[in-house]
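STRUCTURE REQUEST FORM
Protein name: Universal stress protein UspA-like nucleotide-binding protein
Source organism: Pediococcus stilesii
Requested output: structure tokens
Priority: standard
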Amino acid sequence: MEYKKILFGYDGSPESMAAFDKAIEIAQRNSAKLVIANVVKRQHANTESVSLGFGVAETDVDIKETLRSREEKLEVLKHQAEEKDLSDVEIALKIGNPKSVLSFDLPKEYGIDLIVLGATGLGKVAQVFIGSTASYVVENSAADVIIVKN
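Status: completed
Returned output:
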């Protein structure tokens, strides 16, 4: 199958960087558009939270700083992709639930036909309590999904 629009979900983990390399490789091979995305999940300040995988921001001050920091990182990744001769690269920084944004919102917005994510390496117990974004996307997205292990 030939892919024309590829969504890469970045979460800062070593696994997502392995997935980034794979997304670039597939985009090069298919002369495809690459959308580099990060989704920040907003939590209320009075909620205890653990930051695993896709980011968690707790207050308005945190969210502004988190968004600024994430946008800078996405720009670096965009530049790295363009250095590898990809001419159609875009970044998408969203606030929301990473599972639904990566499964439904971004694929619909960009007409994505392939999603590339890194395997988080969470154990079965951790997945039961917090869920696996990658597993959710595999099960729910209409687009093809590739999970890259580091």
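Reviewer notes: The first helix runs from residue 14 to 30. Residues 5-116+138-148 form a domain with the Rossmann fold fold (CATH 3.40.50.620).
Form closed.
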